[in-house]
Design goal:
heterodimer, A: three-stranded antiparallel β-sheet, two-stranded antiparallel ribbon, 44% helix, B: three-stranded antiparallel β-sheet, 12 helices, globular
Amino acid sequence: MASQKDLAWVTEGTFKLAGMTVPAGVSAPATEAYPLGARDYPSITKGHVDNAIDQCIFCGSCQRVCPTSAIVVDKAKGTWELDELSCITCRECITICPKKCLSMQNTYPTISGSERPAYVTHEALSSEEMERRAEADRQKKAKIAAAMAAKKAAAAKKAAEAGDAAPAKDAAPAKADGPSKGEKLAKDTE
Amino acid sequence: MARRTILPYGPQHPVLPEPIHLDLVLEDERVVEAVPRIGFVHRGLEKLTDKYDYQQYDLVAERICGICSFGHSLGYAQATEHLVDVEIPPRAQVIRVIYHELERMQSDMLWLGLLADALGFESLFMHCWRLREQLLDYFEATCGGRIILSLCCVGGLRHDVDTDQIKGVVTTIEDMRDDLERIQRTFLRDRSVVHRMEGIGMLSAEDALAYGAVGPVLRGSGVALDMRMLDANATDGTVGYTLLDGFEPITATGGDCLARCEVRLGELFQSIDIVEQLVQKIPEGEFYNKPKGDPADADGICRIEQPRGEAFYYCRGNGSKHLTRFRMRTPTTANLASLVHMLQGVELTDVATIILTIDPCISCNER
């Protein structure tokens, strides 16, 4: 026969939990019927990284900062690749992106499905877009070269006016310090 | 003399959440000796300081463990902050502690569920994890991730968290209080649970100190030692805890599995109280200050109270952006010696319960 102590065990222990279990049995399920029911993700959820490729300038900053080397950028081809199985959604690339074309989407990529492969390669830009960007680069380079030439001419003119005592005095330190920022940029963009 | 048998236990075993191997030397059904073996999931994460700079490494540090990830990024950040010229904004200090406590709650609820599952108490297991889900949902709504939060960094926080959202979590955990009290009563008073834990896996206070036990294992033996007690003068503590109106560690005197369970259950309510206190004290202002310069050629240490006990972090800088050395000592490392001692003389059926009550985290332990 159950002692008073045994009865106390039952009433104070198991029946107390029943106070949670019985309501849970008649209320709505605590879980979702995945994959039948779609889940509403919070807007901040770290799902996958997306690139608005039309705005991307392929500077490679995201590739350099990525801790898992999941991003590969090819400026010449105009491609941006992301290995989504390596991506840890740390937001480092999004923070550093100068054009803010990278964004964190709150949905998860369906790696196993056919919609998204593990490697997401944004298709190369159209030939017209590539040509447009190349033309913009050429114009920028010509503009920098013209500005540099004008600067040099102005310096030479100033030196000539100052007389023979200190020829090209202003221009000399710039050469001694190596190429200026403008020369460097022009060289980099070649 | 009974015949001795060696029974291999783990690394893959239904009751073990993570891989640890024990060679149990049995005499009939009684364990006379336990020889642990680890090293199944070593990943060499500490070595990655060579590859990642000190600001990137907190992303690695929080991946040391999947349950106490925020704590690892906090410990790493606090140790490294000794080496760089940076002042942590007060807002970041408070939010860090709030998230650390919320993570402690979800970790303890996970452990309680695992314990209930090991005891065969399915409904108790599900209730523990059902409540835990609410905290994980909160983490996702505020940080974008349920486990890996990527919130803490050297200098403060990676992104700010809305004060109203943090205040909202108080309602969530306050609503949990009734359910947690029911769960507490079930763990501590239900016969089927108590029968499996009372008087099992005894560890006296002297033995706990001698074997270097930490966390709930130590406090379950009656020793009131908790790294959240470190005051403002301690350079290796967490500043946010000094804002509390006093802190008393939860202890139990039994020294058995039930006492360790009692400590963890008590800490759930303690964490609720801490969060409620700190939410009232969240200051406005910056959440991040950019560190000036690279880590100096010096040592930085930090001690924090993880859900499993004291964790120790050590950093050595060299003047460059890469740390020369990062080392940590996890609570499971400290508690393994106690575990081996506790297993001596117990019945084979109690081994699973005793292993679970130290809450082993082998992925932290091996890194």
